[in-house]
């Protein structure tokens, strides 16, 4: 199963390169950062775009925010190898600026293909950029940590919006909020598995 999934994901990567998605970003980036983790994961984490470390290593969430994400996974009894982690935009925006709406829009179809291939039970959005595609009307300050069941394509999926780990690195209060929200995620998955 994983072999076909890997082949399918490799095809998504090949299509991004062949169609030359966001050529301005591609020209400045070292790597196309597709994602990392378990292809049969129950949980997919989606950030906004790679930063400097991610661009250099070709992997998502390997800088300071990634270390914090690893800490939270450990507190929730999980490891990176249990989950799949990706971003909406697959190239690093220059100087770590926010991804532009047209950049997110250009990469969106490829993200949806990744989700179709991995077929997680829960999608955890990290920050408002990834949340707004799934919950366009929502404000992250109002809905963080709450599980929302939505229709996505022809499937129903559960979205759990969280603050971005990078934001919590600079704000002690938000750090605890993010940890508290994060620790609810395993319970959400258990409930889904029980069909609630």
Write a compact overview of the structure shown.
The chain is an alpha/beta fold and 196 residues long. It is 48% helix and 15% strand. The chain has one domain: Uracil-DNA Glycosylase, subunit E (3-Layer(aba) Sandwich).
Structural summary, described in words:
With 196 residues, the chain is α/β, with parallel strands linked by helices. The protein has one domain (2-193): Uracil-DNA Glycosylase, subunit E. Helices cover 48% and strands 15% of the residues. The protein contains ten helices and six strands. The protein has a six-stranded mixed sheet, with helices on both faces. A hairpin with a 2-residue loop joins strand 5 (148-152) and strand 6 (155-162). The longest helix has 18 residues, at 101-118. The protein is globular, with a radius of gyration of 16 Å. The mean pLDDT is 93.
SSE ordering: HHEEHHEHEHHEEHHH
Unreliable stretches: none
Which bin fits the share of residues in helices? 40-55%
- With strands numbered from the N-terminus, the spatial order across the biggest sheet is 1-3-2-4-6-5
Taking the alpha carbons of the first and last residues, their distance comes to 27 Å
Provide the CATH topology: Uracil-DNA Glycosylase, subunit E
**Second rung of CATH, namely the architecture:** 3-Layer(aba) Sandwich
Determine the number of helices (DSSP H or I, runs of at least 4 residues). 10
What gyration radius follows from the Cα positions, in whole Å?
Answer: 16 Å
Please, what is the CATH homologous superfamily? Uracil-DNA glycosylase-like domain
Give the total of domains. 1
**Structural class given helices, strands, pairing?**
alpha/beta
Q: Which shape, going by the Cα principal axes?
A: globular
Strands, count: 6
For the residues shown, what is the average pLDDT?
A: 93
Q: Mind summarizing the main beta sheet?
A: 6 strands, mixed
The CATH class label is Alpha Beta
């Amino acid at each position: 199963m994983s072999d076909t999934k890997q082949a399918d994901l490799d095809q998504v990567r090949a299509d991004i390169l062949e169609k030359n998605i966001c050529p301005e970003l591609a020209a400045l980036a070292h790597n196309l950062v597709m994602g990392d983790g378990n292809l049969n994961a129950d949980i997919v984490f989606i950030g906004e775009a790679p930063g400097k470390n991610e661009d250099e290593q070709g992997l998502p969430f390997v800088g300071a925010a990634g270390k914090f994400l690893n800490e939270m996974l450990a507190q929730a009894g999980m490891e990176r190898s249990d989950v799949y982690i990706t971003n909406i935009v697959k190239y690093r925006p220059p100087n770590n600026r926010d991804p532009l709406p047209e950049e997110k829009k250009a990469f969106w179809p490829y993200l949806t293909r990744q989700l179709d291939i991995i077929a997680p039970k829960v999608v955890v959005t990290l920050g408002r950029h990834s949340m707004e595609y799934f919950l366009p009307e929502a404000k992250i300050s109002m809905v963080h940590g709450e599980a929302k069941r939505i229709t996505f394509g022809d499937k129903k999926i559960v979205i759990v919006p969280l603050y971005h780990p990078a934001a919590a690195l600079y704000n002690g209060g938000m750090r605890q909020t993010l940890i508290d929200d994060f620790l609810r995620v395993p319970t959400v998955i258990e409930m889904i598995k029980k069909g609630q």
